[in-house]
């Protein structure tokens, strides 16, 4: 289930670094639009009062702690080891996220209940959310298999919840759109270049799910090596 000490430090740092590289453009956009400079921002981030305020905010706890931990526990740590012996690792990586995407359909009922938009817009938004949550679920499933740890997917999930979906349209209209779009392109390029090296199973020790499949007589070399 990904709870182990072997290789825990690279498993916590490298997948998060990889995800932050993918979000290079949005991070640049966030820094450009932030009214405070780097020193003031660090003071706010490191201030005990800021963390105390976050830890008493139920919405922050839900988005940054509870949802990432419980969803990754259910859809990666529990569901993947059950699906993989039946389907193989490759199909499991793409099947498991479909359940993860459907699990977010409750937002449809919330929006319909409070009439936040038209019915067509609500269902279009739900289809879009299903698509990107399924893609994100496949990514964290890949991380879980390649690292053998749950901590990486949880931290990446928390980071992505904080960042939200990249505001590409706002970037296209930004006063500094050229360097910003270059940051978007560079982030995606570096992510694709570093995806395999930073998730190399050799960095994380033995992989429990791969060992389980080997004992069952199923070897998935592309993901386990």
Q: Can you characterise this structure?
A:
- There is one protein chain.
- The protein is mainly α.
- The chain has one domain (8-224).
- 78% of the residues lie in helices and 0% in strands.
- The chain is built from 13 helices and no strands.
- The radius of gyration is 19 Å and the shape is globular.
* SS element count, helices: 13
Q: Name the poorly predicted regions.
A: none
Reading the helices and strands in chain order gives: HHHHHHHHHHHHH
Overall pLDDT score: 83
Summarize this, please?
One of its GO terms (cellular component) is endoplasmic reticulum membrane. This protein has 225 residues and is mainly α.
Which properties best describe this structure?
Rce1/LyrA-like_dom; mainly alpha; endoplasmic reticulum; 225 residues; transmembrane helix
List the helices and strands and how they pair.
Blueprint: H1 8-22, H2 24-33, H3 38-46, H4 48-55, H5 58-87, H6 89-102, H7 106-114, H8 119-147, H9 151-163, H10 168-172, H11 177-198, H12 208-215, H13 221-224
Helix pairs in contact: 1-9, 1-11, 2-11, 5-6, 5-8, 5-9, 6-8, 7-8, 8-9
Domain CAAX prenyl protease 2/Lysostaphin resistance protein A-like: 60-163
GO cellular component, one term: endoplasmic reticulum membrane
InterPro entries: Rce1, Rce1/LyrA-like_dom
């Amino acid at each position: 289930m990904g709870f182990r000490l072997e290789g825990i430090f690279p498993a916590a740092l490298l997948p998060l670094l990889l995800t932050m590289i993918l979000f290079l453009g949005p991070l640049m956009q966030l820094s450009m639009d932030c009214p405070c400079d780097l020193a003031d921002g660090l003071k706010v981030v490191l201030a005990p009062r800021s963390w105390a305020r976050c830890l008493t905010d139920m919405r922050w706890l839900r988005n940054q702690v509870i949802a990432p931990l419980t969803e990754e526990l259910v859809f990666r740590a529990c569901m993947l080891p059950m699906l993989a012996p039946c389907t193989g690792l490759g199909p499991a990586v793409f099947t498991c996220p479909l359940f993860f995407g459907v699990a977010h359909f409750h937002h449809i009922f919330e929006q319909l209940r409070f009439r936040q938009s038209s019915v067509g817009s609500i269902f279009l938004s739900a289809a879009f959310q299903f698509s990107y949550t399924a893609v994100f679920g496949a990514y964290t499933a890949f991380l879980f298999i390649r690292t053998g740890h749950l901590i990486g997917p949880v931290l990446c999930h928390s980071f992505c919840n904080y960042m939200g979906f990249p505001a590409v349209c706002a970037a296209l209209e930004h006063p500094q759109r050229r360097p910003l779009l270059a940051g978007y392109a560079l982030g995606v390029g570096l992510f694709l270049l570093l995806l395999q090296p930073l998730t190399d199973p050799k960095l994380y020790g033995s992989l429990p799910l791969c060992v389980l499949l080997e004992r069952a007589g199923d070897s998935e070399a592309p993901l386990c090596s």
